[in-house]
Amino acid sequence: xxxxxxxxxxxxxxxxxxxxxxxxxxxxxxxxxxxxxxxxxxxxxxxxxxxxxxxxxxxxxxxxxxxxxxxxxxxxxxxxxxxxxxxxxxxxxxxxxxxxxxxxxxxxxxxxxxxxxxxxxxxxxxxxxxxxxxxxxxxxxxxxxxxxxxxxxxxxxxxxxxxxxxxxxxxxxxxxxxxxxxxxxxxxxxxxxxxxxxxxxxxxxxxxxxxxxxxxxxxxxxxxxxxxxxxxxxxxxxxxxxxxxxxxxxxxxxxxxxxxxxxxxxxxxxxxxxxxxxxxxxxxxxxxxxxxxxxxxxxxxxxxxxxxxxxxxxxxxxxxxxxxxxxxxxxxxxxxxxxxxxxxxxxxxxxxxxxxxxxxxxxxxxxxxxxxxxxxxxxxxxxxxxxxxxxxxxxxxxxxxxxxxxxxxxxxxxxxxxxxxxxxxxxxxxxxxxxxxxxxxxxxxxxxxxxxxxxxxxxxxxxxxxxxxxxxxxxxxxxxxxxxxxxxxxxxxxxxxxxxxxxxxxxxxxxxxxxxxxxxxxxxxxxxxxxxxxxxxxxxxxxxxxxxxxxxxxxxxxxxxxxxxxxxxxxxxxxxxxxxxxxxxxxxxxxxxxxxxxxxxxxxxxxx
Length: 608
Hints:
By secondary structure, the protein is an alpha+beta fold. It folds into 2 domains: 56-244, Alpha-Beta Complex (Penicillin-binding protein 2a (Domain 2)), CATH 3.90.1310.10; 248-301 and 313-606, Beta-lactamase, CATH 3.40.710.10.
């Protein structure tokens, strides 16, 4: 029995050994077949890959989101651009290759070498951009000589294009290349070296939505860096599209009417705060910034006395002049120092102490109430009303009306303006407030400063019966498939500090400014459309008491600024406008006609 068991054990071991041997043989056969496949069938390809180390990753830039106006008119798009790139590893000897390239495309050698020098040795294996957006003639030359230019590549990349040259430049903004500090900040997760980001306007404020996500491509290149084969591609993801509140046709009209004047125009929908127009003159061409603006063009912009790089709608601060009389009227009515029946006599001046403060009408307005004082812009009435209210109370009402503080528009560099108080002057100048200074600020002169946007928001609130809206410039954000990913709703930021009864008196005075027989804005009437508004002439040159003054004796830079603010139709406003023309002298004759044209165009389009 024992011998039988031993025979069984030996047979079992023999079978196991044969099974293991067969497994080893199968594994060996598979390895041999794989080796034959790699060495014989794919050998030549892998020898080439090994010899040149030619598998590389190439990034693919994403397209920025498009920008449309409120009526779906395209304002900003992307166009294909040809970028001239170099891989230093493939371009040896680098200097000789770059010199040859520079002579062929007629570009200074130093300009091409600048980016290489900046990148340093760390970029030896990376692709560097020598020149963005080359011309088609330069493209043809490079392609014709590509075998003589090792390491030189042309890539087609999406590049920003602003459809209408200079139009709404300050609102739309422009792009600029990201710098090292910004990259290291971590605030731009989908951006890499060489990419452009928004530097100004909507392009900057909504950068996170507009900037897409880049893709990549794994490619095989030959010994000279030329692409032989695409191995794998990860497509980029486009940025999101913006739909603005801007009205393209109205913006065109505003900029055309500004012409050669320096100044700003802002138009707002009083019912929700939508910015219909934001024009600042002089302007600039955003397309000049694509790929980096030349030093020559930048110097021209900086040397322009009109300050084209400033968005005057939100950055420039001006004395509000007689448009501020609306605030003084509200404060005086609410503080009960006057009412609808109160009158002051205007002989053409107001004697205050030993100084005579002139009215713009040297013959005087006679006995006048608040409604007619607004309509005829009587300085004497508001001297006395402001004197009774006092500087600090005036400041409280002005701030309550949205002046001297940020509107909250989603654009960088907005200025606050200035609404003075006695404490402010003491801190700023170490001097006490003088009673005569209250008279000056009561009519919008002196220390008072506002922006055109603030005045547009304010006059819109007067027209809509007291609601202050945050100015809205983007209505919705959509992905590339047209799906809304974010809607930006109107936002109320406050209310005017005035009762309905007193506001009605102010509105009546503003209506008579244009529609009344003696109103200062009567020349801009439109048949069938009632306009309510206020003219203003902001002094630039300081006049002495009793001085005979003639603007024609002054250079243009010392002449008065011209204001006009309004809303229409007066009973149910659909548009509110603020216009400032620097050194335009008279709001009624220079600024008001611009507002008239915009009102006529906008409301006629609204009517079937």
